[in-house]
Automatic annotation (TrEMBL):
Record's protein name: Malate dehydrogenase
Alphabetized SUPFAM superfamilies for the sequence: LDH C-terminal domain-like (SSF56327), NAD(P)-binding Rossmann-fold domains (SSF51735)
Organism: Herrania umbratica
KW Oxidoreductase (keyword) present: yes
Gene: LOC110428676
Alphabetical list of Pfam families matching this protein: Ldh_1_C (PF02866), Ldh_1_N (PF00056)
Molecular-function GO term, any one: L-malate dehydrogenase (NAD+) activity
NCBIfam families: MDH_euk_gproteo
């Protein structure tokens, strides 16, 4: 017998509603670009997240297929698919968290900035939808170049009169995830025990790991510092080259995106002491946006932490990072302003 989709969906939504009313945490999450290389594993991991009651999967291709597939998983979240621009508003209405991995990824030889011309327009359109349909949602922006797409999103929200800097977060978690892994390798530790703050931005030299602040406390030789900093800054390129034209990091990125989204949801729920690195509006440096540790709470990034003490190597790195970041941020702002 063909399943009665309408009945299945309405009873599933009733269940989700019930859970929400019963006080159990149940957040509504949309993924824009859900059929992509990042989007699909990200959607699967969010379908497994117990904090999610409703999962909206939006893409310009293949959203119904991905949704049908995921909807058979016997987890709590209800998955609903939305295909193409005419369904963007339904996808966004009522969402608590919107995760955006829509856009083209790098091929070998490309920088993240080479993606600007295509992805800037995609991010603008999607953020216009957010401003209209769920202006209070937390936005996790993954689409590259993050150093420019976050300023683009901020300008779109300012124009719409909905901008709240606490709710707009550029996802840099993959840099932290990589840093934890590579540092653990050098120290001979379990990566789960290691925490490396990574600040600045999300491209090349703007990715600044603070190896002097690694937990547990440890020291590195100058050679180790040089090796680790380079490997963390070029981790994305390592994957792009290994995939040889088939795209950039998707699986580790989906893992990182879920780690970050889950932290945002725990913050929304009111958990205390949720701290992650993210690229946000910031007064830590003279730049309008900068990635540092932030504390996530009911209203988003409620506190932006200072850099803490840097060593000489990190101070030199910071100067380089700020120079490139300033240009990328300006490029994003001008894209909307002109
Ligand atoms: P992909 O090409 O596999 O998937 C992108 C998806 O976006 C596709 O399904 C496509 O149909 C969809 N899409 C295109 N235009 C759209 C629109 N207007 N509305 C909704 N969906 C649209 O690319 P992949 O590998 O998933 O990467 C996505 C983005 O994430 C890229 O910009 C990539 O550079 C970025 N990225 C960011 C990272 C980070 O750390 N922040 C790490 C890795 C990738």
């Amino acid at each position: 017998h063909p399943p009665n989709h309408q009945m299945e969906e309405s009873s599933a939504l009733r269940r989700a509603d019930c859970r929400a009313k019963g006080g159990a945490p149940g957040f509504k999450v949309a993924i824009l670009g859900a059929a992509g290389g990042i989007g699909q594993p990200l959607a699967m991991l969010m379908k497994m997240n117990p904090l999610v009651s409703v999962l909206h999967l939006y893409d310009v291709v293949n959203a119904p297929g991905v949704t049908a597939d995921l909807s058979h998983m016997d987890t709590g979240a209800v998955a609903r698919g939305f295909l193409g621009q005419p369904q963007l508003e339904s996808a966004l209405t009522g969402m608590d968290l919107v995760i955006i991995p829509a856009g083209v990824p790098r091929k070998p030889g490309m920088t993240r900035d080479d993606l600007f011309n295509i992805n800037a327009g995609i991010v603008r359109t999607l953020c216009e939808g957010v401003a209209k349909c769920c202006p209070n949602a937390i936005v996790n922006l993954i689409s590259n170049p993050v150093n420019s797409t976050v300023p683009i999103a901020a300008e779109v929200f300012k124009k719409a009169g909905t901008y709240d800097p606490k709710r707009l977060l550029g996802v840099t978690t993959l840099d932290v995830v990589r840093a934890n892994t590579f540092v653990a390798e050098v120290l001979g530790l379990d990566p789960r025990e290691v925490n490396v703050p990574v600040v600045g931005g999300h491209a090349g030299v703007t990715i600044l790991p603070l190896l002097s602040q690694v937990k547990p406390p440890c020291t590195f030789t100058p050679e180790e510092t040089e090796y680790l900093t380079n490997r963390i800054q070029n981790g994305g390129t390592e994957v792009v080259e290994a995939k040889a034209g088939a795209g950039s990091a998707t699986l580790s990125m989906a893992y990182a995106a879920v780690k970050f989204a889950d932290a945002c949801l725990r913050g929304l729920r009111g958990d205390a002491g949720i701290v992650e690195c993210a690229f946000v509006a910031s007064q830590v440096t003279e730049l309008p946006f900068f990635a540092t540790k932030v504390r996530l709470g009911r209203t988003g990034a409620e506190e932006v932490y200072q850099l803490g003490p840097l060593n000489e190597y990190e101070r030199v790195g910071l100067a380089k990072a700020k120079k490139e970041l300033a240009e990328s941020i300006q490029k994003g702002i001008s894209f909307i302003k002109k």
